[in-house]
């Protein structure tokens, strides 16, 4: 009887795990795949004839190595979320870079181009081929920038629709297993006491 209870418990446990992880469904979910925080460099030098490296801040939207490592199931980048504050107006451009010469960028397919001290924007980039974001100081004095830029993307995730049902089955199996194993020593103690009382009498 005891072995039967344990066997039933194991069967229920196996069935529970099978039900819980059967029929997986894949779906797309938008998540933050990269958070450019803090923005570097934080101080942008004034515009000169030969734009210096510190005159602009930029990120390659779709080629960030951190994104590739953390989200190998990334399908595409969907949007950028700007939360940027500058001490003086700066220009933010999002688009496709077609030329690069001494850190002077020429953009094509521009999806965002604005000059301001404050940016609080969500910029859709899905299916636009935009691959670059640039923050440029176009003034004559250094500009300090704070904030962050979040890159959103669609990643493939997996869900198990019968996970809750399978969990209940597994818990039932565990309860049966605990009952079967816990009941065994109690019966031994009872039999031991019965045998001892017979010896005494």
Question: How would you describe this protein?
Answer:
By secondary structure, the protein is α+β, with helices and mostly antiparallel strands. The chain folds into two domains: 2-23 and 161-200; 25-158, Sandwich (Jelly Rolls), CATH 2.60.120. It is 31% helix and 45% strand. It has helices spanning 2-20, 65-70, 163-200, and strands spanning 25-36, 43-44, 56-60, 74-101, 104-124, 132-136, 143-159.
Topology record:
Layout: H1 2-20, E1 25-36, E2 43-44, E3 56-60, H2 65-70, E4 74-101, E5 104-124, E6 132-136, E7 143-159, H3 163-200
Antiparallel strand pairs: 1-7, 2-7, 3-6, 4-5, 4-6, 4-7
Helix pairs in contact: 1-3
Note the gap between the termini. Answer: 30 Å
Number of domains: 2
Low-confidence stretches: none
Helix segment tally = 3
What oligomeric assembly is this protein in? Answer: single chain
Instruction: Please identify, by name, the CATH architecture of the largest domain.
Output: Sandwich
Percent in strands: 35-45%
* Structural class by sheet pairing and helices: alpha+beta
Shape: elongated
The biggest sheet amounts to: 7 strands, antiparallel
Instruction: Tell me the total number of β-strands.
Output: 7
User: What is the fold named in CATH at topology level of the largest domain?
Assistant: Jelly Rolls
- SSE order in H/E notation? HEEEHEEEEH
- CA-atom Rg in angstroms: 32 Å
- What is the mean pLDDT? 77
